[in-house]
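Input record (one chain):
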Amino acid sequence: MLPPGPTPVNAGQAAEAGNAAQSAASSAPKTSTTMQGTPGAGAPPGAGVPPTTGAPGTGVPGVGRTPGGGANAPGGGVPGSSPLGDSAPVTGEAPGAVAGAKPPKGPITLAQLVERARTQDARVAEASAELRKFQALHQQAKWAWFPKFEITLGAGGPVPEARNDGLGGPPTTEASLEGDWNFGKVGVTVFSTGNAVLPLYTFGKLSALEKAGEQGPIVGAALRERVRAEAGFQAAQAYYGYQLARTGLKQLEDVSKRLKDAGDRIDALLKEDSDQVAKLDTYKLGYFRQLVEGQRASALQGEQFALTAIRLLASAAPGEQVEVVEEELPLREDVKVPDLETALKQANERRPELKAISAGIIAREQEVLIRERSYYPDLGLAGFYDVRWTSSATRQRSPFAYDPYNDRTVGLGLVVRGTFDIPIKDAQLDQARAELDKLRAQEQTLRAGIQLEVTQVQSQLVAAYARAKSFTEAEKNAKRWATAAYAAFDLGTGDTRELVDSFTALAQASAERGKSWFDVRVGMASLARVTGAVPAADE
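The corresponding structure, as predicted from the sequence alone:
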């Protein structure tokens, strides 16, 4: 059994976009060369993939949570906050830090961060070790035909004297007689025995075992790719979360400066006893300034948390300074979202979970074949030898004389080996067929879960892009409104309410714009992940 799939850094549903089937292949073909008798005649490989644990939106047992639509999925989230949930560790060295890995020079880019997460994450190292185990199991199944040589070497004593004429005649010395305490000149004995069986024909059991073993590396490689995709997606999520927090801080700085200028103007007008303002306006402006400060604290916390997550995902060494390239979330070019049919086709072709479960089905089919052929015996070539020498016994030269002390025997011949435990074989065959049917049903559930997941992520990305364009235009209008309101207030033709309302609208529009573009960026990375693609540098 493989360990469970990687835990998303985000505890919410956004980080789970693309995770619908990540746990569907948490087990792989297991090959066995333990044979009862001739190799190839015994235990077949038990290959399989357990039930899916992440297919969304279904009521099938073993199907878990519905991905997408969370606080950080396309269309959700809080401006200025980190896209990472509380489940991510926030202190200490990244567990996947690779000794001797050279950190990149200068600020880290998205492409560098994703690459480091996909290659240096501890979960990737664990999956690579599992892949090597499957490769070793494949070799074990491949060499299942190799004879098992059983050789015994021994020496012992004392051995009583046993002398005769060497032709099976009566004892020639008194000490050779039994029934008394006269052991004569005692000696020692040395012996060696050995046997081996080379399978010649097993009715296809050995071929099926090797074919089942071939599926192990396929499953291991698919599971490793699944972990790499998860690590890369989480890296992109942390990267865009940092950019969102950084942009939010700049927007809050701008709003704070505008409110401070307005506050200074109100104080000046109050000293002049102007009828344009009242003391109540000072309280209003102070209230909104404190709200901005509260949002600034949340944005700073989100920025620090995103940087900590980036350090962990980049496997940064202790003391290594990690700087992140400053990048604007809004895209200059139009977002080209693939249509749903194309996205589903790509997911069916590239998702590693589907490759893993397909390999598991092949291995299970071979197990059924082995169980069906277990009723037939195996034909093999058997060989043995037995060599003994005793210092106190006469070697018998007659072929008709029994000589347990000085024996030299060797033989080679054809053997047929089988067992007649028919009821047990019937039960094992029924169990193998049931496991195969179970795995095929899981494949159907997995495909349905992936279809639902891709549909959800693709539609969320489309909606997030539409919101991003709308809030971009809304921010432009809010800036014009705030500029006009401030100019009117400065000239004495505008009131405080209009000024505060315009600043509030500008702050809200800027926050929603940043959040919506964050949703677009994360949605693009999520769509790449659920379709089995690696996020590119500009995603």
